[in-house]
Design brief:
homodimer, alpha+beta, Nucleoside Triphosphate Pyrophosphohydrolase, 2 domains, 3 helices
């Protein structure tokens, strides 16, 4: 059960994404056009401080027109493994380096049109060790209990899919 | 705390998405380029049958190169409200029309580069009432208990972000 590409062309090669238009042979034997946003894989981090609170970041997300509360996250750079990305992004966005790091799982963010896969990590035993990055100037940091985060989801103060899904992976691990 | 667009141009206007490149004035007063995937808003549906099982669909997702298990979902069409989309998509993808429909929440799928917002609904009291749609030919349907779905997430048989996040919204509502 697959679709086989029989033609491909790049519409755009950009800074954070490429756009490709493919012609495919469908499962039923016909042909169809498939628009694909190419984006590098990424990591999201459930980071727990010594008070058992979770770290959340707030930043303006231009495509949505809003400031969003999210877990720390970022793109896997060329030659980097996802665990290294998790350590780097956590230091850049929150100033903390984790002594304990565990993979919780992962997921596709928008599989209808994008190839991005996000790896999710749990980070604990946080040591202050900031890394400065150009794109993290405007990030606000806070800490919240799990109960507070659940309440923020219920009241739509958190409306970021990866943050909600990563919290599920964390809470499911915590009880099992 | 906003970025103000000072220039915009369309790179592509396509079937399921458009791509735009904007120049923005950043919060710090500089300028930056922002690539934005324009995609219509969408709905995802937690549908519960009379045995309290959840409905899952499986389809080949070309951008990921894989068949994925997901909740039923689809795009809000022009002039449609999200509740009508939820009813239509559920009939098209599963053959069932819900007598009970409740909004559970919503989220942005990839706020770093896409504007798509997904509304999540809970559907119950399902009556057989199929609607045929061209794009639903290759969809496989199954039913699973909540425990089975949690196990599919743990073992990466489910690796779709919206499905995991929507399950969180449903389970959080169920216990609160």
């Amino acid at each position: 059960m697959q679709e086989i590409p029989i033609g491909t062309s790049y519409i755009y090669k950009g800074t954070i994404l490429n756009l490709r238009s493919d012609i495919v042979k469908t499962e039923k034997g016909g042909t169809a056009n498939r628009e694909v946003v190419e984006h590098v894989d990424s990591v999201g981090i459930i980071a727990i401080d010594k008070h058992q609170n979770l770290l959340l970041v707030n930043q303006f997300r231009y495509p949505t027109g809003e400031n969003l509360w999210e877990i720390p996250a970022g793109c896997v750079e060329p030659g980097e493994n996802p665990e290294s990305t998790a350590r780097r992004e956590l230091r850049e966005e929150t100033g903390f380096d984790p002594e304990y790091l565990e993979r919780l799982g992962g997921f596709f963010l928008a599989p209808g049109y994008a190839d991005e896969y996000m790896h999710v990590y749990l980070a604990r035993e946080l040591k202050h060790s900031p890394l400065v990055a150009e794109d993290t100037e405007s990030i606000e940091l806070t800490t919240k209990t799990t109960a507070e985060i659940k309440d923020m989801i219920r009241t739509s103060q958190i409306k970021d899919c990866k943050t909600i899904a990563a919290l599920f992976l964390f809470l499911d691990r915590a009880v099992s």
